[in-house]
Structures are given as C-alpha cells and as structure tokens.
Amino acid sequence: MRIYKSRFVLPVASPPLEQGAVAVDGDRIAAVGPADSITEKYPDAQVFDLGDAALLPGLVNAHTHLELSDASPDDLPAGDYMAWVRAMIERPREPEDAAPAAQRAIETMVARGTVAVGDVANASWIAPLLNRSPLHGVLFLELIGFNPASAEQLLDDAARSLDEIDRDEDFAANPRLRVVLTPHGPQSCSAALIKALAGRAVAAAAPLSIHVAESDEETKLLMEGSGPFRDLLEERGVLPDPWAVPKHSPVEHLDRLGALSPRTLAVHCIHLSKQDLSRLQTRGVTVVTCPRSNDRLGVGRAPVAQLLGAGIPVALGTDSTASAPDTDLFAELAYLCSEIGIAPAAGLRMATLNGARALGLTDDLGSIAEGKLAELIVVPLDGAPDPMAVIGSNPETVYRLADAPAEAT
Ligand SMILES: [Zn+2]
C-alpha cells in the first residue's frame, strides 16, 4: 500500500480536500480522504508527500481525430467553415506522413495529463499507435456516406476493419481500449447509415459519437434541403434522387433515427433550439464541446452554461490539429474558462468525470474514488491559494503520479 499526501486532493466527484491523501493498492485506489485519517487507517503503508501540489484524476479528452495530426490550422482556412470543409475533403491523407504526427499528438496528451481519449478515425492505422500508448479510451471508426445506396457496403467494410482490429492479439490483450463504429454527422451520412449504426451501438451497449449542430449550413441542409452543403453533396454526386429532406433540426433528425441515448456523445451542439435542448436532456445525451476549434472555424459557440444549467452533461475535447492548435486538454480547459466563462471546477468535471462517463469508463477513471484506477496527475501549486484557479489557467507543469517529485516519509 502506498499513500500520496498532497496540499490539495481534488477528487472531482466529491469536494476538494485540503491536506488530503490517496491510498493506492497495486494500480487501484483504496481510499481517499483527509491525510491524517488515511495515514491512520494504513499505518504500514509507504507514505509519499507531494507537497505544495494538487492531486487530481487524469484528464479525458472526449473528442479528437489523431489521424489528422499532420494538419496544421495555419495551413487551412480560418473563420470560413465551408472553405475548411472543402479543404479537408481535398487534403491528401497519407498514413506515412500522419503517423509520426499522430504519435507526437499522443505524447502531448500523455505529457499533459490526459489518460483517456475518444478518438475518431476514418482509417484503422491509428489503432496500433493507440494500443502502444498508455491511453485508455474508445476508438470510433467513423463512417461517411450520404447516399443510402452505399450504406450496406460501408457497413460491411467497416465491420471487416473492426474484426481485423479485434483479431489482433496485442489489441485483444489490451483492456484499455475499445473500438466501435460511428457515423460522422447528419450532413454527411444517410438516415439509413445513421439508423443502422445507432441500432448497432444500442445492441452492443457501445458509445456512439456524432458531430451535430456544428454549423448553420448543416441546419439549412436538414431543414430546407438547400445551402452550401447541398451544393457540395450534388457536386460530389452523392445526393440521392429523389432525396426526402428531413425538415427537422439536426438534433431532432438524429433522435428520430434512434441515435440519441445516454451512450451518445453529441459533438459540438452549437446551433440548438429550445426543443433540441430538452430533447438532449430527455435522452441523457452527453454534449462534447471543443471551444478552440469552434472559434477557429467561426461556427459559433456552444451554449455550455445553458446546457450545464439544464442538467445536460458536457464533456470537453480538443478536436484535431486541423482546427485547434494542439491536443493539450489543459489548454482547452483554460480557453473554456477564460473565453466561454465556465468556472474551473465545472470545467474540471467536464474534462474528467463527464468525459469518462460518456466513454463508458467510470468504473476506472474520471474521479478519485475507491476502486478506480490510480491514473492520477499532479499539478504544482507554488503557493497559489486556490488550486482551481491554477487548474483552470493552463498550468505549466503537469506530472503523471508515478513521475511526480515526492518526498518519502
Ligand atoms: Zn470532430
């Protein structure tokens, strides 16, 4: 048994503890509480004092696309969403170029205190990289196909990729990662495809991650069947003829297809009506917000405070380096606090527990609680009176627990 004492312990699911401690047995948390009572409870434990620091759960980046890590936002259009979408479609995708960049992005995450990830990928080459990393999480193999005629073939091909990954011995032996299929979004996937993937996710009790209500253009396509997304789909020859315009908001469209459930990660959710908001709440959906990406693309801002106020869990993601500067969730959290006006304590919950819950990882991660994995991180406080203020302002130094300087006592 080891005990880690710290000036502050921030369990997230329970109030902060000044002069707190965490007892760790093997790789699991045995107890958390005031330092005095924890050391009294386990008199034979080895005690490590982390000193003037905050001990907190490792972060959960609920939405990123590691396979796009070779993209830089500076090389892509800013403030013009449709121009960015077109640039992303035209961009060559070469795993040979992208893999080293993805590896660096993973290293950034690990170095900056992220312990779990919801990663969205169109190709399976990212699987072995994630597998070799210490990260936990879900790899969402993403399907795109607006023409319903292609749905069956896409699903067959994707199921084969999934089987291939599942058959890989290294992957099968790794309890940290799960691979599932997921649709990209309502402006790029047919109703048939979304419905099939949603049904599959429900049957497997698997998470489903889908981009939704990111842009006005997406709403226009679904409500009116017109606008720049229609032009794009026509140009690419994937608009079915005839096509029945849904005439519903993106959120209602997904709900009608059975894609909104407590295991759904609804990514972005910027353009929401009152009815959309209550629909998300009723269905128990987690919204994932990526504020730096949204601002970069000029798509608007998610009503995070309003969502939280309505009791809708909101998780935090960095999105990819095609629209955000890096995969550092502490930098995203600082932006959420300073630019979106979310209090650091609420932001920390979004960046830990809410993400873990959405990805189905709460047995192991997301808070400091008995029985969970000791995937904890340490942030030096340097005398700062309020640990939350440090957490919410992109701390310069972050350690994984095993690497944190500690005094053995
Ligand atoms: Zn995304």
What structural keywords apply?
single chain; 409 residues; alpha/beta; Urease, subunit C, domain 1; TIM Barrel; eight-stranded mixed sheet; four-stranded parallel sheet; 16 helices; 38% helix; 22% strand; globular; binds zinc ion
Please tell me about this protein's structure:
- With 409 residues, the chain is of the alpha/beta class.
- It folds into two domains: 2-57 and 367-408, Urease, subunit C, domain 1; 59-358, Metal-dependent hydrolases (TIM Barrel, Alpha-Beta Barrel).
- It contains 16 helices and 16 strands.
- It has helices spanning 35-41, 81-90, 95-111, 126-132, 151-167, 169-172, 191-203, 216-224, 228-235, 250-256, 274-283, 291-297, 304-309, 329-340, 344-358, 387-391, and strands spanning 2-9, 17-25, 28-34, 46-49, 53-57, 59-64, 114-121, 136-143, 177-183, 208-212, 264-268, 286-289, 314-316, 376-380, 399-400, 407-408.
- The strands form three sheets. Strands 1, 2, 3, 4, 5, 14, 15 and 16 form an eight-stranded mixed β-sheet that branches. A four-stranded parallel β-sheet has the order 6-7-8-9. A four-stranded parallel β-sheet has the order 10-11-12-13.
- Helix 14 crosses helix 15.
- The longest helix has 17 residues, at 95-111.
- The model has no long low-confidence stretch (mean pLDDT 96).
- Bound molecules: zinc ion.
- Zinc ion binds next to loops.
At a glance:
The chain has 409 residues and is an alpha/beta fold.
